[in-house]
Amino acid sequence: MKLLTLPAAALALGSLIGCTDANIESVPETVREPIVNGVLSSAIDDAVIGVFGGGTGCTGTLIAPTVVLTALHCVAGFDSRFTFSCRSDGTLSPGSTTGQLGPAAAPESISVGVGVSLGAERIYAKAIYSTGSTDVCHDDLAVIVLQSAPAIGDVPLVPLRFNGSTHKGELTRAVGYGDVEKTETERGRQERKDMPVRGVGGPDLAHPGDNGIAPRTLQTGEGPCHGDSGGPLFSEATGAEIGVYSLLHTSTCTGLDVRNTYTLVAPFEPLIRMALESEGVDPILEPEEQTGAGGEAGASSSDGGPGGGDSGGSANSGTAGNGASAATPEGSGRGSYRDSSCAYRAAGKGEPAPWLLASCALVLAGWTAARRRARALR
Q1: Gap between the Cα atoms of 11 and 27, Å rounded
Q2: For the whole model, what pTM was predicted?
Q3: What domains, with CATH codes, occur in the chain?
Q4: Residue 223's pLDDT is what?
Q5: Of 46, 62, 222, 378, which sits with the fewest C-beta atoms within 10 Å of its C-beta?
């Protein structure tokens, strides 16, 4: 079965970003509302913020006072006018007319806004860290370091899943500023709860995960849409961010057959830590034990659950939409799929971080072991 793919970036103020099939028309420029079939999020989610660049918009999360996690295609050159295809192994299909990620945007051209309805105030970036991926089909993750901290009061920053296992059936919550397509909802930042994970990819091609799921990604059904790119997928059991929204695999954001891809957070722990260390802060980690009222923690995210077993065919085809530009460092140009997830660089510096390769290998090995243990228990 062939899946359509759309990077999901444009926001209420931006133009469409995504990967869709060549025969599919883009969502009209006039349609600019948030997550489909969601509800308006409250101020408790003010750590989920808007990301702007290149005349378009995305979503991101504050993981430290001045550090934002988002999608790579939101902060680097990306041409969304033409069609492209992503294969289920996370590579760009031959013959695709676009889908490549260009040079890093100048950090000062990227800004963020805060609030449920995104006020006019903007804070600009001073550095961008990226995975070094040269196309949107894999490792679509970047970290922005801001010039100053957004004013979000006492709202908690976002914890990250670095060590826990993500599995099919786990219930999640999506938050973002993107389109709601045909559903009726109030404009502003939206959330949608009770979204089961439909499949999880392995750490690399040698250690595949669920059938049809690209390495270092997970897949959900209906929920996020264009403009939610870079936005978080939270574990409902722990509140930790487990994924960053990247691609829509169908021609529409609504319907039972909708498939959305999130880039997993855990495999990119070294990159995220490097950005945090540049600001002298440590990551906020997911609690080791799930917590909840009355000792019910974690019940909703246990194994099984609805929506399991989707598979993608051998190819995910699509047309791009346009979002903010992605922060691939200048001159990165590493097309090797095997190396791209560990070839971390900071925008404007152009230097690789080879010391991270060993660290990345250890992280991936630990993540693989955790996934195997989780499967053995199911």
Answers
A1: 12
A2: 0.73
A3: 3-377 (2.40.10.120)
A4: 94
A5: 378
